[in-house]
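Customer escalation, tier 2.

The customer says the design service returned an amino acid string that "doesn't look like it belongs to this structure." They asked us to rerun it and document both sides in this ticket. The original structure tokens are below, unchanged.
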């Protein structure tokens, strides 16, 4: 526990979803078959990281503020700026 550092982060947000997608990619790519040692796991992760970086892999996130206002009405209220 001395090496663990805790950070408070928002529970919702596109950055969290993107992080979960990347973790899933690495889990499937590195853990889909038996890992014999920590060294082997590090090698697999480094190879997958190099491959994804060489291909310039990105996530095309398309959840906009307008989508959020519909799906998450309680978190994104509509503000009426009319001063009539």
């Amino acid at each position: 526990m001395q090496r663990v550092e805790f950070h408070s982060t928002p529970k919702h947000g596109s950055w969290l979803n993107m992080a979960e997608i990347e973790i899933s990619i690495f889990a499937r790519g590195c853990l889909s078959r038996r890992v014999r040692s920590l060294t082997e796991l590090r090698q697999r992760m480094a190879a997958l990281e190099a491959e994804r970086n060489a291909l310039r892999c990105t996530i095309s996130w398309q959840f906009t503020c307008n989508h959020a206002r519909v799906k998450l009405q309680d978190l994104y209220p509509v503000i009426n700026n009319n001063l009539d």
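Tier 2 assessment: The sequence is consistent with the input. The mean pLDDT is 82. Residues 14-71 form one domain. Sent an explanation to the customer and offered a walkthrough call.
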